[in-house]
Amino acid sequence: AKKQEGNSFAFYDEAHTVKMNRAFNVKTALQQADFDRDFALHYQPVIDVQTGHVVGAEALLRFSHATLGRVSPGEFIPIAENNGLILSIGEWVLRRACRDIGPLIEMMSDRFKLAVNVSIQQLESRTFPFALKAILEETQFPQDRLVLEVTEETSVSHSERVKETINQIKSYGVDISIDDFGTGYSSLEKLHHLKVDQLKIDQSFIRELDETTAIVRAILAMGESLGLSIVAEGVETKDQLDFLKTTTCDYVQGYYFSRPLTFKDFQSFLSNKT
Ligand code: C2E
Ligand code: CA
Ligand code: CA
Ligand code: CA
């Protein structure tokens, strides 16, 4: 028995080492990355539940490295968040997204919004609001067409700085959306206090809709009472869409409509729609 314990410990240790090495390699790759060459933004259409019109797009970052190949954001974003790299990556993302989508805005419906994900480290940085303002000016992107998505955990964590940053961002006319809503612990009071504009229902609730209908209805009622717009993420089937059509949900996003697309494919998607 003793020998087995020893073995399982060694096994754990080895798995841990492999994981640490991988994280180290990803970190090194990010540090050495040529952003314009190794990063790309994909865009996933956001759809009006009732009309089926495209009313927005969410920018999702992709990283492709010479030796590591494609690394998913689920893997590299937490690593970038752990060592400050997310600040320069986040600025690159904002600039790229505003440059890509800016020229399309005029052709789109006047409700069209660009959604960009931001990390807590960006909201905690004193310089972030200035960087954001500079990027909006440099790209001539209309502020009221931008939505920043922050995770529920991020937005309700009680840092004064985060609250100040959110207020400053909102004073530019930029909207704030709470991502992965329902997975954290925000109260009505906190959401009201933060003056957010939108909630995105976490895709886990949409995936298990049979079991989570009551929760989804509760989130929709809560959003309604606060006057927020609501997006349902991860819509993959017609059944899920048909259910959401019977509710006050405003927007939907998911593979049922489209996967995240390269900028070029996103443009084709738009021209096929109109
Ligand atoms: P998220 O913001 O919740 O983005 C939604 C994720 O769900 C994306 O994964 C998207 O490709 C995927 N998705 C969309 N529709 C469906 C569907 O119908 N079914 C399923 N199963 N999945 C769907 P992705 O692109 O791998 O991104 C993962 C996470 O990485 C994002 O979750 C976000 O938290 C983070 N992320 C991505 N880009 C950025 C970025 O530029 N900055 C920051 N800070 N985080 C980012
Ligand atoms: Ca998001
Ligand atoms: Ca989400
Ligand atoms: Ca509504």
UniProtKB/TrEMBL annotation:
Span of the entire protein shown here: 523 to 796 of 796
Protein's organism: Halolactibacillus halophilus
Residue intervals of the EAL domain: 19-274
Q: Which residues form a coiled coil?
A: none
Looking at the record's lineage, which domain of life comes first?
Bacteria
Q: What is this protein called?
A: PAS domain S-box-containing protein/diguanylate cyclase (GGDEF) domain-containing protein
